[in-house]
């Protein structure tokens, strides 16, 4: 692929706040005939729309400044858009592409989703590159193009423009206009945290903790990258993929640990197609697994803290009322309120714990080695999808590997061995024992949290929520706890509701659990 040049220019209003980004790209193309794909673009990631560029919003000209017309074709699920040419283009033609990226308009009631769209935050702009960039199609895969874009952006954005880029989980850059950072700009450090709005936790303290941890994580996964960057963005809306409300410091660190693990093990393509949420159990499960295991291996967690967090995760799996939903049915419900959203995390975690135990107990290659193999395949842009993964573990465990995968995918309950803790704790005396635990239950349909009316409707009058004082008709404000935190069995759930149009909100707190129990397991 010939040289590619990308120019990103933020446009500011009279008060110095960034409003849009003007984008100009220059590249030399291979020969194209009418109807060939020139660019590929991501229209949405999960339920989050990107900038939605059209053929009319993109101006394409050749070396003679003549306009080349485009038209678009969307994929079946409207997740990607192909920009196709309406005329032939000769090999070696130098093309200029101009368009403008505008931020997504959000408010307090915007649906939760992955933070990929470009949004405003305290006078700056932030977003994943998949929302900003049209990716030229080389006809034989665009990995070289993506690499060129990254190299060009690194060179361009490092020249005092006030912008930075990072490589995110889709190999595209993210762009931030910066306000604050840890450590200070004068300090030369391979680890950095950036934010636009002051977060509701001590970012400097968190930075010191992660600065000790993240380079060790990279070494563990065989990554020789020398620069690590964390970007924090404030959400205007309620979303567990961001940090909107003040949360316990240990929960914040656990959350970021999970997200940081995503830099390395990720299930990807097998035959050239993108990953699917049907396989989200792998990405979320392995992040849950290592966000627990690595802090213990690195002696950041004590043995008691490790077991406590282990118990929380196990409890969340067994007490999830949607625990039997099949993987194939999770995708369309993943970003809706409710416990289905937690299935890939909980089920994937249990799968990897069970797999680590079987490999350890049978004297096979450890899970860490197999995961590092997948990471190397991904780094080399080689197939690293579900079929590749299953072939790796089938070599170690035979047909049992496929049977376990099918059972997990179909929602069959996994029962861990009582001595499973021995995989990580030498001479462990911890035993996993059956216990009765209350199932997660808010006391009203969780769809109330995302309904247009946003009022309590269908309250179970026998529930703990009703006992605490919640009533049908109460208006739901955004001041309520994160459901993800409710995985931790002892935690209470708090809502501030408005009743009968009164100005003063009512604070109602209860234990979000049913009165009946299900069989769970805990270390003792």
Q: What does this protein structure show overall?
A:
This is Peptidase M61 catalytic domain-containing protein. InterPro entries: Peptidase_M4/M1_CTD_sf. This protein folds into three domains: 4-178, Sandwich (Immunoglobulin-like), CATH 2.60.40; 265-430, Neutral Protease, domain 2; 436-521, Roll (Pdz3 Domain). Helices cover 27% and strands 23% of the residues. The chain has ten helices and 22 strands. The chain has helices at 143-157, 203-220, 249-261, 280-297, 303-318, 343-361, 367-379, 386-397, 399-409, 464-468, and strands spanning 4-12, 18-28, 37-42, 44-45, 48-49, 59-61, 70-74, 80-85, 94-101, 119-121, 124-128, 135-136, 163-167, 173-177, 180-182, 191-195, 228-232, 432-440, 475-480, 493-498, 506-510, 513-523. Strands 1-2-9-6 form a four-stranded antiparallel sheet. The protein has a four-stranded antiparallel sheet with strand order 7-8-3-12, with no helix packed on it. Strands 10-11-14-13 form a four-stranded antiparallel sheet, covered by helices on one side. Helix 2 (203-220) packs parallel to helix 3 and helix 4 runs antiparallel to helix 5.
